[in-house]
Every structure is written in structure tokens, then in C-alpha cells.
Amino acid sequence: QSVLTQPPSASGTPGQRVTISCSGSSSNIGSNNVYWYHQFPGTAPKLLIYRNNQRPSGVPDRFSGSKSGTSASLAISGLRSEDEADYYCAAWDDRLSGPVFGGGTKLTVL
Amino acid sequence: EMQLVESGGGLVQPGGSLRLSCAASGFSFSSYSMNWVRQAPGKGLEWVSHISNSGSIIYYVDSVKGRFTISRDNAKNSLYLQMNSLRAEDTAVYYCTRDATPFVWGQGTLVTVSS
Fold first, then answer.
1. Tens of pLDDT, residues A38-79
2. Does A108 score more than 90 pLDDT?
3. CA distance B33 to B43
4. Residue of A6, A47, A48 to mutate, interface with B, max B Cβ within 10 Å
């Protein structure tokens, strides 16, 4: 049982916009920044969004993040087949004194 | 280029020990806190342990307290995880990560606990 709650799956067709939600509590998302990662089979997670809505260099602006209260979301516009991956949200948790993760959302491009 | 390279994983029997290492390069290692994060086969990500940049502040997830020890050597740009009394449920890929909430990830090292 993950501390942050994500839908287990999401899907869209090429060119569509999809969003993935991440729900937490006052001790994590409510008081700390949210990070998003994607992970392809057999590889390590890679940072997509940091500090709620910032993109590392090299991440296309098709990816955007937002946060409101104790929830956050990742939006992917202009969906491409290569976006098919697992997506995870994370935030520091003040009560656990460590980062907590969502259970992951498997994105399928139909 | 910022890089984290883990080593030390392998097959170990229940009750055994392993020491994981992580070599950092491309950034000022002593300026950053570090974490170990693991991922069991087919499962999601789970934080294991955190250490501050100086090594003076350390935290563990409850399931490894008393069995795992995190440490670092800033002179060698290295992070370690000593794992004792290993259990089947510790089987996972272990990732070395930089920052309180992971910003940079290593490629991971597989730990398999099985008889």
C-alpha cells in the first residue's frame, strides 16, 4: 500500500492529452514539493518534473505538472507511442522523514 | 554529467549480509543528501534510507530498522548500505539516489534473497 495514491492505469491515443493524478496528505504533498518520474521496462526511473512544475533540461514541454493542496497531477499533451511507460509521483514526508512514492501508473498509448 | 553507479548486489541466503556501494561523479557529492530506494520485482518504488550531506542525520523505513545501516564517505564520493539479516522480502533492485526527494538515480543493483 503506497503512501501516495495514483490510478494504476491510464491510456490515450496519439496526439491526445492525458493526465495522471497523485493524492497525498498534509505531511507530504500538502507541505512539500512533488516530483514525477517515468520508468521504462528494465531501466531506472528518470526525473520528469521537480518542485511541482519544473522540467529538467531535455524534458519536452509536452510534460507539465501542477499541485493544489494535497493533490498533484502530471499532464502529457501530444501523446506519443514512446510515452508508454510507468509514471510515479513522489514527495518528502515530514512524518516518515523520507520520500514517499505513488504506486505507479502504467500509461498505454492505444 | 551527474552519475551514480551502484555495485555489490547478488544472491544471498536468508539471514545473510550484503554491502551495497554507490560511486558518485559529476557533482559535489558532499553537498547533497542521499537515499537508497528499492523496487521489488514487478512492484513500485519504496524508500529505504536517507542520509544527510554530512552523514549526521539518518532515517530508515520501519521494515529495515535494526538490520540495515546507511553510511557515506565524502572523501571517496561514495554511499553505502550494509544489509544484515536479509529476508526474502528484501529482494529488489536497489537504487542510489541524490537529494531528499530523488533528483538523480543510479542504474540499480539487484539483490536476491533466496535459499
1. 999 999 999 999 999 999 999 999 999 999 999 999 999 999
2. yes
3. 25
4. A47
Chain centroid offset of residue B66 CA: 15
Cβ contact, residue pair A100, B105, below 8 Å: no
From B8's Cα to the closest Cα of chain A, the distance in A is 17
C-alpha cell at A53: 512544475
- Distance between CA atoms of A37 and A35, rounded to whole angstroms? 7
Residue A1 confidence (pLDDT) above 90: no
The single residue listed with the C-alpha cell 491510464 is: A10
Q: What is the C-alpha to C-alpha distance for residues A53 and A87, in angstroms, rounded to an integer?
A: 15
B98 touches chain A (CB under 8 A): no
Residues from chain A that touch B6, judged by Cβ atoms under 8 A, are: none
pLDDT above 90 for B26: yes
